[in-house]
Each structure stands twice: as C-alpha cells, then as structure tokens.
Amino acid sequence: MHTATFMWSTNEGIMTTPTYHFNLTGGSGSAERIDLIDNERSVVHHGTYTACQCEDDPAWYLKASRFDMDQGSDEGIAHNGVLFFQGVPIFASPWLSFPLSGNRQSGLLPPTFSLSSTNGFDLTLPYYFNIAPNYDLTLTPRIMSKRGVMLTTNFRYLTPTYSGTATISYLPSDAITKTNRYSINIQHTQNFGDGFGAYINYSSVSDVNVTVAGQRAGHLPAGSGRDLQQRSVVGARTRPALAIVQYVAPLQSRP
Known about the structure:
2 domains; Porin; mainly beta; 255 residues; eleven-stranded antiparallel β-sheet; lipopolysaccharide transport protein A fold
C-alpha cells in the first residue's frame, strides 16, 4: 500500500513503498520508505539507487539499508551497501559515497564485466579521487579469475603551462604465466613560452602480450607489433623540432 504525508510549508514528508526519480540528477530507485527532510535532503530506507537511464532493468545498482541523499551537495551515502552488476552482487561496504549527478566527485565509478577464454571472469571496480579541479586519480582493481588481481593507477594533471597523464598497471604472479606483469605509460606536454615546448611519451611493459591480456578496459597501452616506442621531442611549434630522442624497445612474448 502506498501512502504519503507532506507539509508544504517545510517541504517535509514521508512516503511508503515508493519508486523515485531525481529530475535534476537523473538518479532513480525504490524503497520501503523515504523521509523528506527538506527540498534538498532525503533519507531512503531499505532501498535501491542507480544512475542508469534504463530504470526498469538497470545494468548496475546499489542496494542499502539506508541512503542519505543530499542534492545540494550532490552526494549520496549508502549504509551497508551492496553493488549489483547484471543482478549479481560484486562489492559490499558498510559505507559508500557517490555523486548524484555527472559532476566530478570522488567515489565509485560504474564497474565493467566480461567473460573470456583468456582471462575468465573479468571484473573492474574503478574508484575516482577528485583531488583538485586540475588533478585527479583513478584506482582500478581488476579481478581476472584465470590470472589474478591487477591494480591500475591513472593520474592526470593540467596547468596553464604543462599537462600529462601517468598510467601504471601491475599484475603480481599471473596464474597463467607464473610471472609478475606490468605496464607503464607516461605522457607529458610542456609549454616553455614564445612558441617553444616539449613532449615526452614513455612506455614500458613486461612483455608483448600484456597489451592483449589487459587491453579490454584500456588499462594497458596497446603496443605496435613487437616494439614499444619511447619518444621525447623539444622544439618550436612553427619550426622543425630542435631535438628528438627516440628509443624502440624490443618486447618478449608470454601467454
């Protein structure tokens, strides 16, 4: 039975067994009860939440004993939450914070999932850290049933004179190759002024096939054949480069 009480003067109210939708943020879900505290804050009891546009059958959703929703601060907090993907519980935590809109905010990003003969059950659970308006970091644990657990860190930075990214992936003790496998890619662009600048692209991998084993989620850079180029350029934008340093590293093959 659906019931609702509401006080217009204070924007307070209670709704039982509702389905809800935030028009401003696009989030939706269902609950046993929702307590409306004011026009921005609400408490969802024993309910679900998803940002997927397919409300009837979302690819992922959170289920928790309580959600504290604050549209003013663009933040939701799940207590005793479980993250479901394609109806399967994949992660649980007593406390989870997530943005209610597409604005940048630290928190869990949507997971990805696949099955393959190479990696088996393959699940990624990225967590985003909004360090500053011009810096951020994403940590992505990746579970591969046939290989093990890989961790990828992706750091991005942007200033008026320089910018770049650094991505490092590490898979200790690959269950198939019996080796530690890694991938490193660093890119940096520098503006010295007066039309002069520099660019650095450094890549290193443990073996050629690590670019295949980890390429699905974009965590490991795709190689060029069996060689990996490392390139540094210094010069002027309107003139030929003053200096170019390039090294092509041969790679070893592993399963």
